[in-house]
Amino acid sequence: MIRVTWALIRVAIGCALVVSAYYWRTPLVSSVRYPVFAAIVMAATLLLAYDLRSFWRGGQGALRFAAVLSAMLAGVALCWTVIGEGHFRWIRYAVLHADRNELAAVGRHIVVGYRNSSEVRSLIEKRAIGGVFVTRLNVNGRNAADIASEIGDWQRIRAQQGLAPLWISTDQEGGGVSRMSPPLPRQPALGSVVAATAEENVQATVRAYAEQQAQGLRTLGVNMNFAPVVDINHGVINVDDKYSQIYRRAISPDPAIVAGVATIYCATLRQAGVACVPKHFPGLGRVTDDTHVADAVLDTPANVMASSDWVPFRAVIASNAAFLMLGHVRLGAIDRDRPASFSPAIVGLLRSSWRYEGALITDDATMSAFYDSPSGLVGGTVEALNAGVDLVLIAYDPDQYYVAVWGLLQARRAGALSAAALEASAARLEMIAQRSRQ
To answer: What is the rounded distance in angstroms from the CA atom of residue 114 to the CA atom of residue 192?
Structure first.
């Protein structure tokens, strides 16, 4: 019985290794990718050696079968992991050694997060990105002067290249989403500040709040803030929603209040030289599922969205907001098949019906609703740029930058990436960059 139990345990371990080998290159395990890689390789090698030894030593039929099955599973996991790493290394090499002009043509549409500052510096030197996303792991334990010096060094490289400054972005909403605090002082959530302020004092309070935030960001060298959240607070609470939690981050349940606050906030940031990025169109306030980890569909009719959730978005667009972030929810009334972040119908609504001429940026493409969509990371990125999106954010898992850019290079060479769309996008980004320097 003990031998049978041990054999079943080894088969179970083999199954777990195969599952781990499948997922270890996905964003799900990006923060522990290489420890997981080492663990899979080591465990699979040991299991394979043990089971081959058990097989050759003989034994009863069922035990030998279990040894063969366990060995096969270990072998599959080992090969899958090693080949997957080799394939990624080849893709990374191909991107880093691509034609500089080709790489620049697609790379300028990517804003990338990073875990290694020397790696992102190399991408900047190759003109391979349009912006950098800076978050808590990049600033932990560092003082403001060191961060500003590093970012200033990146921008000096761009200036030497004769290019517009990089978009140095972050999530500094206030409250629970304050990626630059510390070193910047933590501010309460904007919604809580508005709720605690008398109506006649709201404008002045929001302006002071935004001024403090913008000045801190500029001190660090950050010129783009993924804020404010202009999703309406519909009071939707889901215990499985661990990351979006719009009800905690939204400004107000009242669209008019959100519109007024967002307009003042964005104007104040803009005056200080920081671009605001209202988010997450078409609105996540009614969405139950968390697009970080799951697909999400919003079935609210478009006319209802227009009279409520879209009011603040239209207000900030009318105030000349240069950027707008697209969320990954699928809006059933307009496009049930694709997330808004790469939906031609959603982009068409903004460009044609709303006549929005600013830049569109996706939420993080390594979120499940984008990455695990039928189009996948590469297909979704290609579709986004073809639709008229200007910047694709790849933040949580920087390794996916290479996969996405490799796919864009292949699509460009095959004629599957619209040259006209890229040219129009480049013109928009250049126009915005020029205005930001005035």
So the answer is: 31
Q: Are residues 293 and 344 in the same domain?
A: yes
Counted domains in the chain = 2
DSSP string, 337-350: SS-GGG-HHHHHII
Q: Out of 289, 309, 363, 390, pick the active-site residue.
A: 363
Same domain, 419 and 295: yes
CA dihedral angle for residue 329, residue 334, residue 337, residue 343, rounded to 10 degrees: -70
Token pair of 245 as six digits: 């939690």
Q: Of 94, 129, 147, which residue constitutes the final position of a domain?
A: 94
Residues 287-328 have pLDDT tens digits of 999 999 999 999 999 999 999 999 999 999 998 889 999 999
Q: What is the pLDDT of residue 435?
A: 85
Q: Are residues 125 and 83 in the same domain?
A: no
Q: Is the pTM of this model over 0.85?
A: yes
The domain of 37 spans 2-94
Residue 351 has what DSSP assignment?
Answer: I
Using pLDDT thresholds of 50, 70 and 90, give the confidence band for residue 57: low
d(CA 78, CA 57): 23
Take residue 170 and report the two structure tokens written for it.
């972050």
- Of the listed 171, 292, 372, 397, which one is catalytic? 292
Active site residue 363: yes
Q: Do 331 and 380 lie in a common domain?
A: yes
